[in-house]
Amino acid sequence: MWYKLGFIRFIKVFAFLLVSLSGLAKASLCGGFPLNSILELKLKSGGLNPVQKISFRVISCSIERGYELQEETQVKPSDLLLRGYFVDHDGRETEEIAFVNESDPNGLTPFEKGILKKRTSEVFLNCPPLQKWDEGFDTCIAENSGQSSHTLFMLHGYQYLNDAWTSGPRGQRALTGPDHFMMMIDRDMTSKTNLSLKLMGSLEPVLVRPCTPQLFQVDAVDCFGPHDYLVNMALKEVLSLGDKENKKIILEFGPKDDAAYGPVPYIMRDTATNQAPLQHGIQGMADTLHDTQWVTKGGFRWSQTLIEGSVFRGDNLGKWIGPYKQDSWSVRINQDLGTYISVGSSTGNIVIPNGNGPVHNRILSTWAATNSLIHGHDFKTETIWSQVRNNQTKKDLSSFLEEFLFNLRKNNFYGQVEVLQENPDDLNVLVTDRNTGAQWVKAVKGGYERNVTSKEHYNISPGFFVTESFTPNSESWQKAYGHGTLWGAWVSLKLSWSFHK
Known about the structure:
The protein is mainly β. It is about 10% helix and about 55% strand. It has three helices and 28 strands. The strands form four sheets. The protein has a 16-stranded antiparallel β-barrel. It has a six-stranded antiparallel beta barrel with strand order 1-2-3-6-5-4. A two-stranded antiparallel sheet has the order 7-8.
């Protein structure tokens, strides 16, 4: 009856997150700018006219609508407003923002009252005639009249150069180059149907040799190995229902794709560093199913709720594409609580091979992501809990992960706390005492990254990170790893790039 227990726990945990975080949503959102405070904005009109400053007063705040601002100065920017910037007390631009004019969404009347709607690195408020804002590409695209289709092409990725080392009896040092690149072709087939092809690859088999040092990482035993050349390849169709386009059916299939399980993978999370969490090495944990084979996935989005299900091959994770087989399944629910909080939960059954043949494992994960403002600067968090139950041994492995990112202009500050259970056999620990079962491992990570070069199509960011690890209180584990605190560190240079047309 384990599957019933897992489903009940799945519903309970999801409901608990939904209720508890909804009470924190408004506090997280409105903590950045108190009511009646004055914001000075620097506005560009049409991208052609000189920059002008306008002062606004914060008059209300809500999860659904964001900050509501009332114009304080007597100016009439009648041209189309394209970009806005927060300006601090020293006159420096700190963050780009976007507004939506409630009385006239097309921006054809003077802007007097608006909503702080979106914060990205590149924002176009009101698109030129015959164009519309595309959420996926964060830019203006030609508006589809239904008579013709429009094709978008996007290419982006990153390349790291890491010098990493770890301490203790198993300590080592290596110079590696983790990377990934992604290509997407997106086409509106009709006014209601969109088709997209995505391809994600990596050169890590060449650039990460043999692996990146990381204590207690199961993936390659105290080391994180390279991804495959082909990480993701899938075809997706989105069908919009109704006129408001708030109901959508999503169908997706790929020989390599992410299954409907867990939150956004670490390689795509803003809060994660370029070093994978320890849970990534334990198959079935939240971060392990982003390169699953032979995935068939379907979903339904209704406003801020997304429900998905998938079947896939689970016994060949992270490897080159094998013969077609679907032996595992998963379901996922994700709920946005307004603009700044998202919660989700997922469960499933995955087949994982071991020395005695494939074994079915029950998998379960729950997560919550927040994005709030602290004095006008982004503060993002990600909380993830995962559990894998081996149906053969009836034993569980659990993990808890907390990440945060604080952005201060061009500076990014990272933090991570991870507590998880690991089996001694997975780390080649010879057990000489009675502690033969899984032991709790703890790791605390902090880091800093600065964007030193910001161009239209690429950015360069150096950084450094430090990890403090704690050996389980077991004679066998301490004999393998040493007593006391263990350390790890790496210095990185990141090149990120993007292109779309």
